[in-house]
Specification:
Layout lengths: L1 E10 L4 H11 L4 E8 L3 E8 L2 H10 L3 E8 L9 H11 L11
Antiparallel strand pairs: 1-3, 1-4, 2-3
Length: about 100
C-alpha cells in the first residue's frame, strides 16, 4: 500500500524534535513510524502519521520546512524468510529501497 511520508527539516539542537512531537500531539496526530538523520546543523525527520493531510496543515501553520512523498508500506511476515518475501520482489521489479522504518 502507498502512504504519505512527511520529511521535516529541523535545527540540530536539543528540543527540536520534542517541539515537533508536542505540536502534533496537541493536534491529535500520532506518529506511527519515525526515522531521523542528522548533520552538524540540521536534521531530517521522516514521519508516518495517522492523519498526514491534517499534519501538513499543522506543519504549514507552524512554519516548518517539509516535503510530502509517497512511500510503500508493507508488513513483514513473521517467519525466517519474511524479509526476503518483501525485498526480493522489490529487487526483481528494480525498486530501490531508500529508507526502512521499523515499528
Amino acid at each position: 500500500m502507498t502512504i504519505k511520508q512527511l520529511s521535516i527539516q529541523l535545527e540540530n539542537v536539543p528540543g527540536s524534535l520534542a517541539r515537533l512531537v508536542d505540536i502534533l500531539e496537541k493536534e491529535d496526530i500520532s506518529t506511527k513510524a519515525i526515522s531521523a538523520a542528522s548533520t552538524a546543523e540540521s536534521s531530517t525527520v521522516r514521519l508516518v502519521v495517522n492523519d498526514p493531510d491534517r499534519a501538513e496543515k499543522v506543519l504549514e501553520t507552524f512554519g516548518f520546512n517539509f516535503e510530502v512523498e509517497p512511500v510503500l508500506a508493507v508488513e513483514v511476515p513473521c517467519h525466517p524468510a519474511g524479509m526476503n518475501a518483501i525485498v526480493k520482489p522489490l529487487m526483481d521489479a528494480e525498486i530501490n529501497i531508500h529508507y526502512i522504518y521499523t515499528t
